[in-house]
Amino acid sequence: MKKNIIFVVNPISGDLDKTSLIEAVQEFATTNNFDLEVYETTGKSDQKEIQSLYNQYQPERIIVAGGDGTIKMVAEAMEEFDVIIGILPAGSANGLSVDLNLPTTIEENLKTAFLSRYIEMDMICINGKKSIHLSDIGLNADLVKNYEESNLRGFWGYALQAYNTLVDSNDPFVATISTGKDTVVHTARMIVIANSQKYGTGVTINPNGSMNDGKFELVILKSLDLLLLGKIITGNMPIDSDDIVIISTDKATIKTDYPVNFQIDGEYCGAQTSLEIYILHKQMKIAIP
After folding, report:
1. Residue 42 to residue 141: CA distance in whole angstroms
2. How far is CA 2 from CA 56, 57, 58, 59, 265, in A?
3. Dihedral class, residue 14 (left if φ above 0, else alpha if ψ from -120 to 50, else beta)
4. Quick one: which of 205, 178, 210, 207 has its CA closest to 195?
5. Are 3 and 34 in contact (CB under 8 A)?
6. Res. 233 pLDDT band, cuts 50 70 90
7. pLDDT tens for each residue of 116-170
8. What is the tally of helices (H) and strands (E) in the chain?
């Protein structure tokens, strides 16, 4: 009996044409005796459409081609279902695939997505929204906002906005952090809420993070100048520094003394003064090499 697979593709993610990718997936499915149903996202009621496709085909796996945003949308749609999600990195933000050490060639990725084993991965819930990867409040969220509003894309667009964001940055904010066990107060430039280790750029921000340990880390950057930013970007995250505090927990509340820009998985979510955060343990099954 043939096994059903649903293939969800975001046609516009990462500004790449997906025609050849879709053809490669169809060919792989045929060769390996899978029945493939292709769904292209539209940005309108995608979750409902994917749920009804799931009910219709009862697939063994859902393969997703897109960035972190598309993966998260599919994970949320499949929250109540027991299905393995395979990833073909094809977005502008591919932080999750960097963290999972997914292969770089399409052939290897197809094998992983269709045939490989899986892990049960945690997600984080922040103010009712899901995060699969890295969210933060402060300077990087300012950067994401500036980048979304600017015209220059890619690495140089990002670098330019990083520089502008540092130069124009607001005063540090005062954050009161409660974990249920204790409460601490830190003056910070940025707090990362991390389920994993690396940003999509490959930069490691949370060296000891694990995606299925039932905990997340709060990485508090008390000061952030060009020197520290340079160290982090070049992969020399100084975790023994006085400027960096890391708290590992399964729930936390963060309150700030004024509204601070906030982003989830690369998507700007407005300025916030309060974040309610808790872990969703083993929330989704993800195929890994």
Report:
1. 26
2. 15, 11, 12, 10, 35
3. left
4. 210
5. yes
6. low
7. 999 999 999 999 999 988 899 998 788 778 777 777 666 666 677 777 777 777 7
8. 8, 14
- Pick the residue with more confidence: 212 or 146? 212
Q: State the residue for tokens 């590992």.
A: 248
Q: Which residues 6+ apart lie within 8 Å of 16 measured at CB?
A: 90
Q: For a pLDDT cut of 70, what percent of the chain falls above it?
A: 93
Burial call 104-131: b when 16+ CB within 10 Å, e when fewer? eebeebbbbbbeeeeeebbbbebeeebb
- Write the DSSP string, 181-239: S-EEEEEESEEEEESSSB-TTS-BS-TT--TTSS-EEEEEES---HHHHHHHHTT---T
CB 73 within 8 A of CB 13: no
Q: Are 192 and 138 in contact (CB under 8 A)?
A: no
Q: Which amino acid is at 135?
A: S
Looking up tokens 């490959």 gives: 202
Angstrom distance (rounded) from CA 68 to CA 97: 8
pLDDT for 108 beyond 70? yes
Name the more confident of 233 and 208: 208
| N- to C-terminal Cα separation, the chain | 25
User: What pLDDT is stored for residue 110 in this prediction?
Assistant: 96
pLDDT single digits (tens) 259-271: 999 999 888 899 9
Q: Are 178 and 252 in contact (CB under 8 A)?
A: yes
- Strand, helix or coil for residue 134: strand
Match 């300077």 to its residue by tokens. Answer: 139
pLDDT band at 93 (very low <50, low <70, confident <90, very high): low
122: amino acid identity, one letter: D
Enclosing H/E stretch for 263? strand 251-264
